[in-house]
């Protein structure tokens, strides 16, 4: 018998549970080196770039594994995939806490890369699409609203734990939270999907070519955005300082990124839920480009607006990452599509910080601003010319 669709209450519990686990997963992987890189480098007697480079390696691992993870969710649902992500992240963090050199440290990040592929946004979006079909858009927005607080929650926790107990104990504490809280939440609140959705509808095969064409452009669009966002996530403070913004003020402005992302997602949820996801994506990429260009003059108030606009654009782009493929490609094989999109996106996120730092050092902040804005401009061109703002027949 087919499983019943989640009720409103079950959906709220599901989004709350998955949102908590997104905060935990992002906080114990992507946002972890920002706080722990220096103490880890001292402990391992390694350079900070070598320590931070492990995150880039883990993103490459996640990108390689993402399509397989997506196909697994399409076939079996996301419950056990998400549960496995809790186990993998706990295992990777535990291994990291015992690292005495870079070899074990990179092995630990390899395991964390597998956990990231199985537990971050793409897996979450695929799970929601598998459960709710084309009605998953609101749930995807809700998930990003909660997960938007990842850095806000993670950085103070990591800094406090490191200061009082050290980075090894911090990693072990995170592993315990994954096992004691995250894993049970995945097992108890993520329902198994309806068996009727296991086999893809035949019409997907009949439209294989157009789906592939759309998939390429969608992947290119989100890869271009991911490259710029990942680059600036690491180098935003340095970019602001290069435009004559003081160090203290640059840090203050950078801290506005998180709240700006959440505020934009709230606005999208309140006023944009009926807008076509492609138009949401177009607004998002344009906002990112305008915000980046506004950094250039080095005027404090303009830089303040720039960070808010850029952060807001990135916030709604995160939502579009799930809703655009859902709308244009349909809910059948959504996990596979998201996985295929995630591969180049994660590779771009892995290489962007190093490329951005090189451009900043060799060419200066003005060249970096124009190059990154140009990349976003290409993304906007793709969005307006290759992503169609209409809703085809969805599975």
UniProtKB/TrEMBL annotation:
Superkingdom per UniProt: Bacteria
Protein's recorded name: MFS transporter
SUPFAM superfamilies on file: MFS general substrate transporter (SSF103473)
Lineage: Bacteria, Pseudomonadati, Pseudomonadota, Gammaproteobacteria, Pseudomonadales
GO molecular function, one term: transmembrane transporter activity
Organism annotation: Pseudomonas poae
Gene3D superfamilies attached to this UniProt entry: MFS general substrate transporter like domains (1.20.1250.20)
Membrane spanning stretches: 12-34, 46-68, 80-100, 106-128, 140-161, 215-239, 245-267, 279-300, 306-328, 340-361, 367-385
Keyword Transmembrane set for record: yes
Keywords: Membrane, Transmembrane, Transmembrane helix
């Amino acid at each position: 018998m087919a499983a019943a669709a989640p009720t409103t209450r079950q959906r709220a519990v599901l989004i709350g549970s998955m949102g908590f686990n997104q905060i935990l997963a992002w906080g114990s992987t992507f946002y972890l080196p920002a706080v722990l890189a220096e103490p880890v480098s001292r402990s391992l007697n390694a350079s900070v770039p070598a320590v931070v480079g492990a995150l880039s390696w883990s993103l490459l691992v996640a990108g390689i594994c993402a399509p397989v993870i997506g196909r697994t969710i399409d076939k079996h649902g996301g419950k056990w995939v998400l549960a496995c992500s809790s186990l993998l992240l706990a295992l990777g963090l535990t291994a990291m806490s015992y690292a005495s050199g870079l070899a074990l440290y990179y092995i630990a990040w390899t395991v964390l890369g597998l956990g990231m592929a199985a537990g971050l946004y793409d897996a979450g979006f695929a799970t929601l699409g598998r459960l709710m079909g084309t009605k998953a858009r609101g749930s995807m927005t809700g998930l990003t609203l909660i997960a938007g607080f990842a850095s806000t929650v993670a950085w103070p926790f990591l800094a406090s734990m490191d200061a009082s107990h050290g980075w090894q104990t911090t990693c072990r504490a995170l592993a315990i939270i994954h096992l004691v809280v995250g894993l049970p939440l995945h097992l108890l609140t993520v329902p198994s999907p309806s068996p009727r959705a296991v086999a893809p509808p035949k019409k997907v095969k009949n439209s294989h070519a157009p789906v592939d064409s759309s998939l390429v452009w969608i992947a290119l669009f989100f890869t271009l955005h991911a490259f710029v966002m990942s680059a600036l996530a690491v180098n935003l403070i340095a970019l602001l300082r290069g435009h004559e913004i003081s160090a203290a003020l640059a840090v203050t402005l950078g801290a506005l990124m998180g709240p700006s992302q959440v505020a934009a997602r709230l606005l999208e949820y309140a006023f944009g839920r009926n807008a076509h996801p492609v138009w949401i994506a177009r607004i998002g990429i344009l906002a990112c480009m305008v915000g980046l260009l506004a950094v250039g003059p080095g005027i404090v108030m303009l830089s303040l607006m720039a960070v808010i606009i850029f952060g807001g654009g990135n916030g709604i782009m995160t939502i579009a990452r799930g809703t655009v493929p859902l709308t244009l490609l349909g809910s059948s094989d959504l996990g596979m599509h998201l996985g295929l999109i995630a591969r180049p996106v994660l590779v771009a996120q892995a290489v962007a910080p190093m490329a951005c730092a090189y451009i900043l050092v060799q060419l200066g902040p003005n060249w970096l601003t124009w190059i990154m804005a140009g990349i976003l401009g290409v993304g906007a061109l793709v969005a307006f010319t290759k992503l169609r703002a209409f809703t085809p027949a969805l599975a």
